[in-house]
Amino acid sequence: MAPPLCSACASAPAAALRPATRTPVCRACFIAQFEEEVHATIVSASLFAPGDRVAIGASGGKDSTVLAYVLGELNKRHNYGIELLLLSIDEGIAGYRDDSLMTVVQNETDYNMPLSVVSYKQLYGWSMDEIVKAVGLRNNCTFCGVFRRQALDRGAELLGATKVATGHNADDAAETVLLNVTRGDTARLARCASASTGLSGDRAAGDEGEVSSLPRVKPLMRTYEKDIVLYARFNRLKYFSTECTYAPGAARGHVRDFVKNIERLRGDAVMSVVGSAEDMHVVAPKTTAPKLGKCRVCGYLASRPVCKACDLLRELDRKLPGRRAESASAPLNNSEAAAAFDARKLVVERAGNASTACGGGGVCTNEVCNKA
Ligand SMILES: Nc1ncnc2c1ncn2[C@@H]1O[C@H](COP(=O)(O)OP(=O)(O)OP(=O)(O)O)[C@@H](O)[C@H]1O
């Protein structure tokens, strides 16, 4: 049977169904719709201003890869007048982050955006592999979330960025909303689905940290994950599609399964959860922005006498006391970090032959990827 015609142009055969509405669309119309939807989010939430220097948090995964690509396209088309940079955090997870960073190195060339990499090891003296050895798998995601948030900030500051953009999407937001419900954290409900968060400790989808020194923007916050996968596939974008080695067992994984199951019954479930969180503005308790100062251990921005990252580092020190002598026990200050910031070279050397997770050539066993 011939495929149905595209519901937008009514001339080309449909290449896919829009996941939320099940309307058939051809490749060209899907790409055009997707890009205009992201543009609409950017405009309606005033995410960028001319002259912004935007550090894109680039993990090599599908969301941040699509984010970098689509921002490059929209910046040209709509004259945003912004400068786009790729910033990757190497958490030090062998066989996962080192592989995904190779994809980012490839993106640097493909999208013509300069890449910088900063690692947990440089900033904190610990890689995630070492942290997991010390604390086990139970709450390692807390360490990773707190360190990543601060590392993105510090990396972006060193680059002279005015904003940090991340690839959080609507599915991520729905998961975070539900996670906050399970924690009884009503105060965060209203703002965890927001496309931009300020400096004051707003915790956005996926972030476990406390304060940011730069505004965070999330241009894909109104975009379904399935659309992102489709967009990547139609544009043949290279990305890395393997779950973090240490993610299985994390609470987010259970919530993700729940959201996926509900979505099968109700195509609009994700956006309904996100919309409900936005409506919480009315009932959520009003919180005042925390007073920002300097952490008395590392000197970096903090809303408490000791920042969350240093708190966690102390916990690590307690578990492995002898290690304090061998490694930095507190985050480097920013000038030390700047000196260590040239880690990019290391990654580039490792990336001799950039590849994606599945290697292509067959049927990818991961979620739909560009090599399938
Ligand atoms: N190691 C990292 N370096 C830079 N940015 C990161 C990193 N990990 C996550 N981010 C940013 O945070 C966003 C959400 O994080 P999440 O853990 O969902 O990423 P991911 O699943 O590894 O990859 P992606 O979201 O790009 O598909 C990413 O889209 C990216 O912008």
UniProtKB/TrEMBL annotation:
Record-level GO cellular component terms: cytosolic tRNA wobble base thiouridylase complex; mitochondrion
Boundaries of every tRNA(Ile)-lysidine/2-thiocytidine synthase N-terminal domain copy: 54-256
E.C. number(s) listed in UniProt: 2.7.7.-
One GO MF term attached to the UniProt entry: nucleotidyltransferase activity
Domain spans labelled Cytoplasmic tRNA 2-thiolation protein 1 C-terminal: 293-321
Keyword tRNA processing: yes
Taxonomy, superkingdom: Eukaryota
GO biological process, one term: protein urmylation
Location in the cell: Cytoplasm
InterPro entries: CTU1-like_ATP-bd, CTU1_C, Ncs6/Tuc1/Ctu1, Rossmann-like_a/b/a_fold, TilS/TtcA_N, tRNA_thiolation_TtcA_Ctu1
Pfam families linked to this entry: ATP_bind_3, zn-ribbon_14
Entry keywords, A to Z: ATP-binding, Cytoplasm, Nucleotide-binding, RNA-binding, Transferase, tRNA processing, tRNA-binding
Amino-acid positions noted as binding ATP in the UniProt annotation, renumbered to this chain: 57-59, 63, 89, 167, 172
Pathway involvement of the protein, from the record: tRNA modification; 5-methoxycarbonylmethyl-2-thiouridine-tRNA biosynthesis
NCBIfam families: TIGR00269 family protein (TIGR00269)
Family, per entry: Belongs to the TtcA family. CTU1/NCS6/ATPBD3 subfamily.
Annotated PANTHER family: ATPASES OF THE PP SUPERFAMILY-RELATED (PTHR11807), CYTOPLASMIC TRNA 2-THIOLATION PROTEIN 1 (PTHR11807:SF12)
Free-text function comment from the UniProt entry: Plays a central role in 2-thiolation of mcm(5)S(2)U at tRNA wobble positions of tRNA(Lys), tRNA(Glu) and tRNA(Gln). Directly binds tRNAs and probably acts by catalyzing adenylation of tRNAs, an intermediate required for 2-thiolation. It is unclear whether it acts as a sulfurtransferase that transfers sulfur from thiocarboxylated URM1 onto the uridine of tRNAs at wobble position.
Name of the protein: Cytoplasmic tRNA 2-thiolation protein 1
Gene that this polypeptide is encoded by: NCS6
